[in-house]
Amino acid sequence: MNRYYSTTVLVGALTLAGLGSPLAAQGRTAQPRSLQAQVDELRRGQEQIQKDLAELKALLLERAARAETPAARLPPPMVSLNVYGEPFKGSPLARVAILEYSDFDCTYCATYAKEIYPLIDHAYIQAGSVKYFFRDLPGTEHPNALFKARMARCAGDQDRFWEAHDRLFKDQKPFDGPGLTQFTKDLGLDESAFKACISSDSYIEAIQRSARLANNMRINGTPAFLIGILSEDGSVLRAAKVFLGAESFDTFRKVLDELLKPAEKTAPASPKG
User: Fold this and answer.
1) What's the CATH number where 109 sits?
2) Which residues contact 256 (CB under 8 A, 6 or more apart)?
3) Do 44 and 105 belong to one domain?
4) CA atoms of 220 and 211, how far apart (whole Å)
5) The pLDDT of residue 72 is above 50
6) Of 112, 156, 158, 174, which sees the most CB atoms within 10 A?
7) Distance between CA atoms of 136 and 214, rounded to whole angstroms?
């Protein structure tokens, strides 16, 4: 039974029962009870009311806490991802990695791609200390996002993924036929091979799988980043930091610099004697 309903009914019952009220006394034919019996009944009723109100308060506080703390909707703080065989940017020897989930029609993603990513690329990726993985998470509110994700992957067949990445975030307008032709020319792609890839079902399943994996980790917005250490063979990323949103370069730098710190060497023990 609903707690509020039970409390209301109880209060109403006590009021109607009178507990000494003039309205209840009118027309009452039962033998009057002793004063002590009435006091005892009143006390029991008050105790029950207090108990029900306490339970109701605890229930409301619990619900409020759940509403104010969206922990169940946040990605886990630590997660391991299989990245075996995935394309990346950076040195194969790098053991620190960033994995980004992104949407080519997301304005926040474009801001990150144009303002923050180039700084990370220059300071860490080109320097050989960080690998960078990119996964697609096209939003359902962006009808062209899946098509653009496929454009980048098809350009990647000709080793032009990152050039396509930069071009798509630079201009987020929809593409028509002439626009696709210009896109292939700008990137130096084989036009017939690129359009054949776009006209097929290539990469649709892979992109949908990427989105499902993100949703399983409660990553429902873009851009999202997982930063951590790769296993010795580079096949598994153990993320030490997961966050949503286009964070500042300083935020990335603090996390990356901490992960890149060399392990502290234990000083050799002094010889005895």
Assistant:
1) 3.40.30.10
2) 96, 98, 120, 124, 129, 130, 227
3) no
4) 9
5) no
6) 112
7) 9
Angle between helices 177-187 and 145-156 (to 10 degrees): 30
**Domain range for 14:** 3-68
Give residue-wise pLDDT tens across range 154-187. 999 999 999 999 999 999 999 888 999 999 999 9
29 pLDDT more than 70:
no
Antiparallel, parallel or unpaired: β 236-244 and 130-136: unpaired
Q: In what helix (H) or strand (E) does residue 101 lie, and over which residues does it extend?
A: strand 96-102
Residues 97 and 226 in one domain: yes
CA 176 to each of CA 104, 183, 271: distance values in angstroms, whole numbers, following the listed order? 16, 10, 76
Residue 169 and residue 160 in contact, taking contact as beta carbons nearer than 8 Å: no
Query: Given the structure tokens 């098509």, which residue do they identify?
Result: 147
One domain for residues 127 and 19: no
Mean pLDDT of 120-135: 97
Measure the CA–CA gap between 96 and 40, rounded to whole angstroms.
72
Final residue belonging to a domain, choices 47, 68, 89: 68
139 and 26 within one domain: no
Residue ranges in the chain assigned as alpha helix (H): 3-17, 22-25, 35-68, 107-111, 117-120, 145-156, 161-170, 177-187, 191-199, 204-216, 249-260
Number of domains present in the structure of the chain: 2
**pLDDT tens, 194-249?**
999 999 999 999 999 999 999 999 898 999 999 999 999 999 999 999 989 888 99
